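User: Small ask, check this?
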Amino acid sequence: MILALCLIFAAGLLVYVFAPGVVFERVTDKSRLAFLEERKQVVYENLRDLNFDYKAGKYPQEDYEPLRASLEAEAAEILAEIDALNVHPTAWSPSSL
């Protein structure tokens, strides 16, 4: 009797642990503009962190300059694409990938 209860409990525990639980809703596709806005915020935050770390002495000048230049170039590319999408909002579509 105790063995049967233990087996039932173990089986229930295994089903609880390994069975698919709550079905997550399908993530909706973001628009390209929303993605770029989020990416812009991330790059700006990285630039702020890099400047803070440089001023705190964590990076030497020769490491700081190329990192800053690459982040600024990435930000410029993102801003250019945002501007292009704002000028021609129908120029990009997910099907063009």
